[in-house]
Amino acid sequence: MTSDIKSKIQGLDPNVRARDVKSFAGQTSSVYESIAVISARAEQISVDIKNELHDKLEEFAVSSETIEEIMENKEQIEISKFYERLPNPVIIASEEFLKGDLAFEYKEPKVTHEE
To answer: pTM for this one?
Structure first.
């Protein structure tokens, strides 16, 4: 995932900026549907980033019985700083959506027949 995230954020401005709302409605039938798609993708990205960071920091976990034995590790600090500087998942998802890199589909509602 790291290389995936690194490629997605390459050249991406991590700052929030104003957007033309109408540009979001181009791929769906309404702005609201577009926002729903973007928010669902942002949730996926957020969970992926959290899991990836947890896995990377887990490598540095040392089981000790005293709190005083906590050691700082430069590599661990650098990993944490990288993830702190990542753009917000909503920004990443919005860029994916606007570039057309985000695939989504509508599921047919289940119809139940009562007798």
So the answer is: 0.71
